[in-house]
Model the fold of this input.
Amino acid sequence: MQMDIKKILLILCLMGCGVDTAWSQQVTARKLNIIFILVDDLGYGDLGVLFQKTRQHKPGEKDPWLLTPNLDQMAKDGAILSHHYAAAPVCAPSRASLLLGVSQGHANVRDNQFDKALEDNYTLGNVLQKAGYTTAAIGKWGLQGEGEPPHWPAHPLKRGFDYYFGYIAHVDGHEHYPKEGIYRGSKQVWENNNEISRALDKCYTGDLFTAVAKKYIVEHQQKQGDQPFFMYLAYDTPHAVLELPTQAYPKGQGLHGGIRWLGTPGHMINTASGTVDSYVYPQYANAVYDHDKDPATPEIPWPDTYKRYASVTFRIDEQIGDILQLLKDLKIEDNTLVVFTSDNGPSNESYLPKTYVSYQADFFHTFGPFDGIKRDLYEGGLRVPTIAWWPGTIETNTEITSANISYDWLPTFTELAGYSAPVRSDGVSLVSALTKRGQQPNSLVYAEYFHPGTVLKYSAFVPERQGKRRKQMQMLRVGDTVGVRYDVQSANDDFEIYDVVHDPQQKNNLASERPSLQQYMKARVLQVRMSDTSAARPYDQALIPSVKNPVKLGQGLTMKNYQANTPWIPDTRGMKPISVSVVADPAKAKISSNMAVFEGYIDIPSDGEYTFYISAGHKAFIRIHDVSLIDADYQYTQGEERQANVRLRVGYHPIKIYSMTNPEDLETLNLQWSYKGQPKEKIPDRVFYH
Done:
């Protein structure tokens, strides 16, 4: 009965929308643990429940297929997010957007910037730390920046995590036996600031990271059971090299079986014995398939490359089942949200010697019902397998069909911790969709990426798409439709437009039928991003379009006062204002609480580049459209001036100016601009409308 009361309290909180301290205390009292499991290069089509069972049971066909029984059960017991997107189609930018809670239009790691330092700003880790969580990152990192080990500028311990175990360097995650280094050479494994690979004889990383995760959870419950934990568990599999484990998965699961941490140098986990890179699952050892689609000819064995891939994928499935059972054994499953997903679409890489058949994603159709793989912005490159599991709160057999994206998790977890997300986040909370309570806000699903290659020539792909040049690419989802463009030369290039709900393979281009949607997409992709000189785009110099024909406007900005209970400027979409008024000049407004949002339009007098300047007594933030223009929130110093350039077309542009204050603040909000070579000046009152 006690658990039922706690669930009722949580649901009442979720229905309340306005996040406050009382909610935070109730959620924290429930010890709502969060485990985010990110696998590497697993395709939407890899899971049985999403696609492989269709291949298995296809009448008259004998295609090769994969087994994922534990993940299938996880999906049955929870929710499938069938329209969930990765923020980017390759590892480093995808992980950066996930951890920062921002799109690729705002992340500091873009394109193929592996090992670049993750920006020092709000992250999944430090936001949850501030919400009272203890935090752990286990597995692949790859966002540490340059520096002498272990003093990297963006070590996980410097980005919000209390504990770290895993591969720091991106390339290290391409070898799954760190000590032996069978195919790619020996690698470094770090526990916090200590390199420990010399003790990791025969440790297959998928098993190793599972053992460490289980050990962490058990020890946390023993020592800090009253404090919630957040775990970012980032596996380096099934990414190439396609290495096999040493042996069968240990019998049982959870607290009394499965993978275990032993802690003895040379035998750190209970699968660190036998022969490295040797175990093929019996389900696949003698597997055959119809290679030529001719029932008159004999079926042939799977090439060893694909037996390896299938075994690695099955191993992941067992590892996840092991962790879920541990939560049940510890009786914390009702108080733990587990999210399982992938960083991007499937790859076509094995990194095996040339004596092996090359790995291709079309053998198992790991891209599922879509076209595209890793490094594509078609659905197969971005739509990723995603399951959310929270027994007793997320209903069984749930499918969430609304579009959402990886940077939605930061506001989701923040809300579950009792707070509104930092305003900087481009995501929205998915709590309403997960719990079926309240109205789910629409997600901004946007991606941009550069790759010099071409779309692979798989026969399953739309013929005219095969071999298509990638280069500069953009994708935007609007409702049921996706706009995507490849080899972008300018902001005026047309999008291909597809109804991905009814046409998931993107066969029927609707662009000629949707001219207004085409124009909307061309404008919208300029209104949600900031350029980054480290990842230049051909549309960086385009003018951001103004709003056409806004409703009748009055002079001044609407001021909404809020009582914020966060150490950051919060996203106010789920908050109720204390008071609402109209002010002519934000700098002279009297804020009656500890935060105000000034919103409306700014009338831009002529086309061109504008430089905006802001200084504040405590914290401030400016958005124009959905462009995060100036961030004076994270680690902001009172009175410091921050500035940013933006190219705007003449006319009205939506603007929001956030100002957080303290009673002892002496500095006030100071807003200035300059343009067309004119000296910096106060932004005049006459350009503000509501």
